[in-house]
TrEMBL record:
This is ABC transporter ATP-binding protein. Residues 7-260 form the ABC transporter domain. CDD domains: ABC_NikE_OppD_transporters (cd03257). Gene3D superfamilies: P-loop containing nucleotide triphosphate hydrolases. Coiled coil: none annotated. Its main location: membrane. It is found in: Cell membrane. Keywords: ATP-binding, Cell membrane, Membrane, Nucleotide-binding, Transport. The keyword Iron does not apply. The lineage of its organism: Bacteria, Bacillati, Actinomycetota, Actinomycetes, Streptosporangiales. One of its GO terms (molecular function) is ATP binding. InterPro entries: AAA+_ATPase, ABC_Ni/Peptide_Import, ABC_transporter-like_ATP-bd, ABC_transporter-like_CS, Oligopep_ABC_C, P-loop_NTPase. It comes from Nonomuraea ferruginea. SUPFAM superfamilies: P-loop containing nucleoside triphosphate hydrolases.
Amino acid sequence: MSTDPLLRIRDLRVSYPAAGGAGGAGGMAEVVHGVDLDLASGERVALVGESGSGKSVTARAVLRLDPDARLSGGIELEGVDLLGLPQRRMREIRGGRVGLVFQDPLASLNPVMTIGRQVMQPLVIRGVSRRVARRRAIELLERLGVRDAEHRVDDYPHQFSGGMRQRVVIAIAVIAEPALLIADEPTTALDVRVQARVLELLHELAAERGMSILLITHDLGIVAGFAERAVVMRHGRAVETGTVDQIYNAPRHDYTRALLAAVPRIGGDVTRPLAVIGAAGNAPEEEES
């Protein structure tokens, strides 16, 4: 049995065309700087950090979703070098071996296509008959808590609530039984009760299918209840990596400690200002040694 990780990222660097530069020269601006990350089969890992820390850019680089991005380093999935694959092979991996859940389900769904057609699509484009794909879509939606799924597959996204739309997006991402699910802020804009149910569903699906999950979030509360390991990112760098217990109980980097200090706590002193994460001081920019 192989002990190699399902996903291996080494010295990943991501650059985008700069809007300008010295003297208007333009050029490339690097936004992710040498990130390393391993994800084992069946493991749940969280990429954590503030908005703009580079966590979503890192995740999108795995699937090469940004045509303007210049990628260097190494990204291997099941031993296959993704950076060296032609676009045709990458299209097979997207939605096949790797599923993706975006943070805004309404923007992720096609408003003029029925829910059923969108959930079925990953199977149909892989040669599964429409009859079988529809049956599997209905079964999966029922599994995810969509009531009367047999009839609701013919509804449109605007006829679903935010929580139900997120269930539909999850169904699209996992119906082809990917080895890896990338969940980019999957509970944003959902109320606490719906957040908990969505995370519970992801946990159950991962356990049932042996699926790995890379969770992108800024919410350390979510990390504590969902992930096994966490990678803390700041300014495009991974500043700390460890198990969830290590990150919460013995953080090694000042930035990680600052993130934890900024989390509101039940029973805490409501008159005390929350910690502020500045550009320096309590959250220095240098990487851990």
